[in-house]
């Protein structure tokens, strides 16, 4: 067993644990914003670790495809979470009393006054 095998195993196990903790967070957190946090950050980190662990065992030409998958995930997950969060906010699915700063509410109120 080489150091590359150990590195790959650590990345794969760490990624799987991160995805598991994210899934537990999605099931146990009380509101939409907390669930979005649990659905995006640990899942993205878990996928990146799994891709790194897998790429370490492959030739570069095959691993380059995994790099593209990781970049695509890092670009799309935050954008989708923001869009879902905005939709949930506008649908009144978020408890606004728990928000520390409500920039979107201020923006929506400003837009209503301008119209």
From TrEMBL:
Top-level taxon in the UniProt lineage: Bacteria
InterPro entries: PhaG_MnhG_YufB (IPR005133)
Keywords of the record: Membrane, Transmembrane, Transmembrane helix
Coiled coil regions in record: none
Residues annotated as transmembrane: 6-27, 47-72
GO molecular function, one term: sodium:proton antiporter activity
Pfam families from the UniProt entry: PhaG_MnhG_YufB
Family: Belongs to the CPA3 antiporters (TC 2.A.63) subunit G family.
Protein's name according to its UniProt entry: Multisubunit sodium/proton antiporter MrpG subunit
Organism: Saccharopolyspora spinosa
Lineage: Bacteria, Bacillati, Actinomycetota, Actinomycetes, Pseudonocardiales
